[in-house]
Amino acid sequence: MCHDQPARLSMDDGDRDRCPPQARQDTCRSTTTAQGADEQQPEDCSVAGATWTLPPWPVSVTWARHLVRGQLLVWGWSQACDVAELLASELVTNAVRHAAGLVLLTLWVVDGVLRCEVGDGSQQLPVRHAAAEDDEGWRGLALVEELSAAWGTSATRWGKVVWFEMPLSGGPCERAAAFG
Hints:
Elements (H helix, E strand, L loop, with lengths): L7 E3 L2 H6 L2 H6 L4 E3 L13 E8 L4 H17 L5 H18 L4 E8 L2 E8 L19 H8 L2 E7 L2 E9 L4 H8 L1
Antiparallel strand pairs: 1-2, 3-4, 4-5, 5-7, 6-7
């Protein structure tokens, strides 16, 4: 049984293009709402979303970590917190370091897959660098590639979005279906 409060996103035309295809088909008409399931319909928990706008400051990386962890805990996906928090912070770090302007952090859970998107105002797409053994940096995208199921970039009218996806298991709706 899911007892989460819905996360609401206003969907203008630009946001609708960023909505994952499955969610766009079913729920991204004007608002995306996290669906709570009852005992008869645990599949109603297939879509959840949350978004935050962060300033281009180094402290935004810390804020992003807390926001990702907090939202996943609210949604009941505690087992995904550590990896999702790490990967989101890598993407936000890149946006703060290499782009100008506000950073948009968005989380989606669609049918048991977490998608994290970080948007910024730069048109420059990230490039994964091979870090030398003694380099202190250049490992962020390598971590994202290694720990996520998929990742990529999308150019937008206003900049770019860098995203990753990771499968989730054992969340509130899966438990409701198993024990319902």
